[in-house]
Amino acid sequence: MADGSPIEWTDASWNPVRGCERVSEGCRNCYAEVLAARFSGKGFWGEGLAKWVTRPDGTREARWTGKIVPREEMLELPLRWKTPRRVFVNSMSDLFHERVPDDFIARVLDVAYRCQQHTFQILTKRPSRMAEFLAGSSGQGLANAEFFRNVWFGFSAEDQATWNERAAAVDDLTAHGFNTWASCEPLLGEISIRPGQVRWAVLGGESGPHARPTVIGHIRHLLRAFQFDGVPVFVKQLGAHPVNREGVPHPIKDKKGADMAEWPTDLMVREMPR
To answer: What is the pTM (predicted TM-score) of this model?
Structure first.
């Protein structure tokens, strides 16, 4: 939980839930999974959440155990922040994981409602549950977009297949006035969109020691599609291994590809929604 964040599109992180599980290829090099495994020793904050496993080639990787921990003690943290800020909800987990209780999700959203001075940025790889919850199928009756005017409900997608599945899950939310957004990071393939699917987008390549290549043309294609649709876009980074469509590396010195001075000029776009 940080009042201040290295993530360029937010100001602070708030983690009322710990623990997660992989659901697609975009999860393979999850930074939260690595951190949880690194601090998984007895008495540390990641105890029981993740572990190190050995691959067939003898190398190790972090893997979630599937344990999910709702954290009562963290629920009211944003209430203590008086200065308005953008708050990334669950940078280390997924609020809409199947084992996070409905009543706990409702309490998290209630805190967001009580903190109208902040803008809350929720990101999930399980938008179907998010949409069902907001439509009221959970029994909580939380289907009023105006009630959540300071909350942005987002999903992650790394390729066309995950985009098609997850964007479809939020179509009704967007149509009914909810603030919806998409994070296409790590962008692992080209994505084509339909108009009106989301109201904001973040794009970026993969970073870290095992980062996969990012085709700069895939970022450009998606950026132009969102711009044509009138959607503000935040290009976060090119990733550790940006390449052109022929696989030729784009020269960078920054290990995340986050130095905008090293980018093609047409990708120097960092817009926030109103």
So the answer is: 0.94
